[in-house]
C-alpha cells in the first residue's frame, strides 16, 4: 500500500472526506475481520475501529440533504441573480465589479461541484463520479478559495489606492480582466500539486496483494511522495492565504473611509472557511481531539456546510449592505422591495394622471 494512502484532505479547500483517512489506519485489523469473501464493507471497517458513524443515520442524512439542497438552490438563484442583474445594467459593468463578479463566479463553481459531490461521498463512502471528476472537483474548489481570496485582495488594494489618492486613474475594465485572468492562472499553477496528488482508486489499493480489498471506489490523495511533502505543501498554502488576508485587512483599515461591504465579505470569507481549514490542519498533523476521532465524518461535513454557506452569504451581503449605499447601482437592482415600490409608485402616478385628465375632459 502507498504510504500516503492514509492522507487526509489538504489544509486548503477540502472538498471531499476520503474514507481512506479512517479505514487505512487499521487495515491489518480489518483484514482479520469477517467479510463476505469478495470485499470488506466500509461500514464494517469503520465499526471495527469503534467508531459509531452517525452519518449513516437516516435523520442525520436527511438534515444534511436539506441543508445542502438549501445551499444549492439559494446559491444558484442568489449568485445567478447577481450575474443577470449586472449583465443587464451597463452602469454596473465597472472595473471593480469585475472582481466582484469573480467572487460570484467562484461561488457558482462551488454550487455545481462541492455542494452536490461532498455530502454524497462523505455519507456513502464511495466515489461514484469517475476519474476525471476526482481530479477536477478538488482543483476547481481549491482554485475557488484562492481566486476568492485574491480577488478580495485586489478590491482592497484598488479601494485603498483610490482613498489614498483620489486623483489617481482608476483601474480600467481591461486591466481588471487582465488581473482576473492572472489570478486564475496563478491559482491553477499553485494547485497543480494538489491536482496531481489525487487518484481514483479501488479498494484493493489499501491492502497488500492477496488480501481482501475494500468495497467501492475512492478519490484519495494517493500520489504524495511522502507525508512530510504533503504537510509542507498544505502548510505553505495556508500561510500564503494568511498573508493575503493580512494584506486585505491592512488595505481596508488604514483609512476611516472604509468599504464596509468589503470588510463584511472578508470577515465572512474567513469565518466560513476557518472551521474546515483548522479541521484539516489538525488531521494533517494527526492532532485530532477525541471528539473529532469519535465522529470524523460528521464533523467534517459540519465544517464543510459552514464553508459552503459562503455561496449564500455573498449575495445576501450584496443585498443587505447595498441598501444603505444609495449611490450604488446594485442596490436598485438587487433590492426587490425597492423595485416593487418603485414600480408601484410609477403605476400609481400614471393612474392619477389618467384620472386627472379624464376628469378635466368630462368637465
From TrEMBL:
Provide ranges: composition bias, Polar residues.
18-29
* Residue span, G-protein coupled receptors family 1 profile domain: 78-318
Question: Which sequence ranges are marked TM in the entry?
Answer: 66-87, 99-122, 176-196, 258-276, 296-321
What does the record say about its membrane topology? Multi-pass membrane protein
Gene3D superfamilies under this entry?
Rhodopsin 7-helix transmembrane proteins
GO MF, any single term: neuropeptide receptor activity
Give the keywords, sorted: G-protein coupled receptor, Membrane, Receptor, Transducer, Transmembrane, Transmembrane helix
Quote the subcellular location field of this record.
Answer: Membrane
Note down the stretches annotated as region Disordered.
1-29
Q: Where is the composition biased (Low complexity)?
A: 1-17
* Gene Ontology cellular component list: neuron projection; plasma membrane
Q: Which CDD domains match?
A: 7tmA_NPYR-like
Q: What is this protein called?
A: G-protein coupled receptors family 1 profile domain-containing protein
Amino acid at each position: 500500500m502507498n504510504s500516503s494512502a492514509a492522507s487526509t484532505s489538504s489544509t486548503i479547500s477540502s472538498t471531499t472526506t476520503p474514507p481512506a483517512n479512517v479505514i487505512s489506519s487499521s487495515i491489518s485489523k480489518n483484514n482479520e475481520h469477517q467479510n463476505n469473501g469478495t470485499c470488506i464493507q466500509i461500514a464494517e471497517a469503520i465499526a471495527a475501529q469503534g467508531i459509531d458513524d452517525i452519518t449513516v443515520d437516516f435523520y442525520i442524512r436527511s438534515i444534511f440533504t436539506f441543508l445542502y439542497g438549501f445551499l444549492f438552490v439559494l446559491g444558484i438563484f442568489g449568485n445567478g441573480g447577481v450575474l443577470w442583474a449586472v449583465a443587464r445594467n451597463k452602469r454596473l459593468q465597472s472595473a471593480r465589479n469585475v472582481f466582484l463578479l469573480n467572487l460570484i463566479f467562484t461561488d457558482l463553481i462551488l454550487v455545481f461541484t462541492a455542494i452536490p459531490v461532498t455530502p454524497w461521498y462523505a455519507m456513502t463512502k464511495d466515489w461514484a463520479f469517475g476519474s476525471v471528476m476526482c481530479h477536477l472537483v478538488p482543483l476547481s474548489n481549491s482554485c475557488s478559495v484562492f481566486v476568492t481570496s485574491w480577488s478580495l485582495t485586489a478590491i482592497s488594494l484598488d479601494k485603498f489606492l483610490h482613498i489614498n489618492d483620489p486623483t489617481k486613474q482608476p483601474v480600467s475594465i481591461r486591466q481588471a480582466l487582465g488581473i482576473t485572468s492572472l489570478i486564475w492562472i496563478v491559482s491553477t499553477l499553485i494547485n497543480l500539486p494538489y491536482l496531481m496528488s489525487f487518484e481514483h482508486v479501488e479498494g484493493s489499493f489499501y491492502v497488500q496483494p492477496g488480501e481482501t480489498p475494500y468495497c467501492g471506489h475512492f478519490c484519495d490523495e494517493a500520489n504524495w511522495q511522502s507525508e512530510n511533502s504533503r504537510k509542507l505543501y498544505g502548510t505553505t498554502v495556508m500561510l500564503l492565504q494568511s498573508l493575503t488576508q493580512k494584506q486585505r485587512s491592512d488595505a481596508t483599515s488604514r483609512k476611516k473611509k472604509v468599504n464596509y461591504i468589503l470588510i463584511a465579505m472578508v470577515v465572512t470569507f474567513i469565518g466560513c472557511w476557518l472551521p474546515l481549514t483548522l479541521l484539516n490542519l489538525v488531521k494533517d498533523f494527526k492532532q485530532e481531539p477525541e471528539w473529532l476521532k469519535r465522529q470524523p465524518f460528521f464533523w467534517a461535513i459540519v465544517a464543510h456546510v459552514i464553508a459552503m454557506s459562503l455561496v449564500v452569504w455573498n449575495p445576501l451581503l450584496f443585498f443587505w449592505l447595498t441598501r444603505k449605499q444609495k449611490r450604488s447601482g446594485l442596490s436598485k437592482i438587487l433590492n426587490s422591495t425597492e423595485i416593487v415600490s418603485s414600480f408601484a409608485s410609477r403605476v400609481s402616478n400614471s393612474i392619477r394622471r389618467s384620472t386627472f385628465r379624464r376628469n378635466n375632459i368630462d368637465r
